[in-house]
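Q: What structure does this chain adopt?
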Amino acid sequence: MRPLLSVAANWTANPAETPASVVGTWQLIDYSQQFLDTKQITRPFGDHPTGYIQYSPGGHMVVFLTTGNTPKPAAAMFSDAERIAFYNRIIGGYAGTYRIEGNKVIHHILASWQPEWIGSDQTRFFEVNGKHLTIKTAPLKYTRTGQDIIGMLTFGRVE
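A:
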């Protein structure tokens, strides 16, 4: 499923639309995927993924997520093979602006670990419950099987 492309050249969020409950720094607690046809829930990135998502009051955002437990290099620097293995542990990393529409947060991607996302909008559904932020993706195709899945992320407020 290809992301929707933004037609606005100078797109920015309107801070007046940004609920104060979303603004802040959030640390990843859990990442899972649900297969829509079977309702099966998996944790493809293990039980201890790590990372942060941050929403500024001015409408900017950044996210970086990995599988956690990153190994150290065998020598002073990573070998090419170790570097490839490290990059394969990245769940997501991008930055841009955002806007809120009801229970949706739309990330407009300006920089990304997936270059095909640059310039696109990524829609997420969110809920804030106390010090927890839950984000769900829109349905997307699982690349290995073609099944429809939803990614589910739980974050805890850091600040």
